[in-house]
Amino acid sequence: MERPGKKTAARIHQEITRQVNQLLSRIFAERGNHGLTDLEAVENALRVVLHQAGAAALSELLQFDVPAPDQRQLPCPCGHHAQYRELRSKLVLTVVGQAQVSRPYYLCPHCHQGQFPADVELDIKDTEFSPGVRRMHALVGQDAPFDHGREQMKVLAGLEVTAKSVERIAEAIGEDIAQREREEMQKAIQLDLPVVGGPSIPVLYVEMDGTGVPVVKKETVGRQAKTDGQPAHTREVKLGCVFTQTKCDKEGFPIRDPDSTTYTGAIETAEEFGKRIYLEACQRGSSRAVKKVVIGDGAEWIRNLADLHRSLSRPPTPVGVGAQVAPQRRREAESLDEETSAVAGQGKNRNTGPHAARHRCNQSRGNREDSHRGRLL
Ligand SMILES: [Zn+2]
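# zinc ion complex -> structure
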């Protein structure tokens, strides 16, 4: 984008001044008539005006020039060249309201694919929402029904959007995040992650569980409910967390390190979730853990994952996804003297290994298991 010239800057200042002056004279007139100031009305009116001024300023800044004669063609992915055709406009919703962008359009005469290089530069390719507004959408769309998100955008940002756009953008950003996570998981499985440096961790806990979450109909198409013949109304989300423990209390109960818990989860198969939770543990420095503990309820998939990942970090015979253990990783793995699976709760098949017994010492104290869990979690 060209730097705005003096003329453009002057026009923007003029527009902002005009709008603010107009509002101020209205506010002063109101106060003269009634002797009162309705703060909420004034603050909201000011925001509207400042937004309008901001949108006008942005629209000025987003007017691209016709490209110079020597810049009127671009490489096209097809191998030919796209030619400059004209300036084209579109409306973009920004954090200060709707702004108009006008930018060069290039068309490839060979494959007929069009290009807006400015859209790539501005990060508004194939969308009518600015990056700032997309970030807001993602924030309000992540933890409440999308219509709440629409309301929040109105109250908090003074922006009119639809529930559908909150949904669309939240899902697009979610997919983007998921894609990046898949890439990271792939790297973790190929033992290609950068080693996270830092002090050793006495005990690193990995806990996981699954639970049914209600979903819309299209999510359960072709899926059987647990009760035969019934359509499914829920899908299982697998959740995991990783936390560390450095100390025990006076009675010898382990204490979770404050603020040490990170979470991950998804609706996916056990195999996929295994990579996800493994990545989480890697990023939390599992290679520096003196002892690793897996806590689960005894479900078979959790047991299998614990076994799989134990084999992954244990030399010398990695199996399955661990078949590509790099020599450097192997040395690190050798320093892990112990890895533990603890099975807490009421699972049918409790782990009866010696390490598990140690972590279930609370069971010999009768019903104090809950207090153990309570302190750790
Ligand atoms: Zn082409």
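# post-check
The radius of gyration is 29 Å.
The mean pLDDT is 79.
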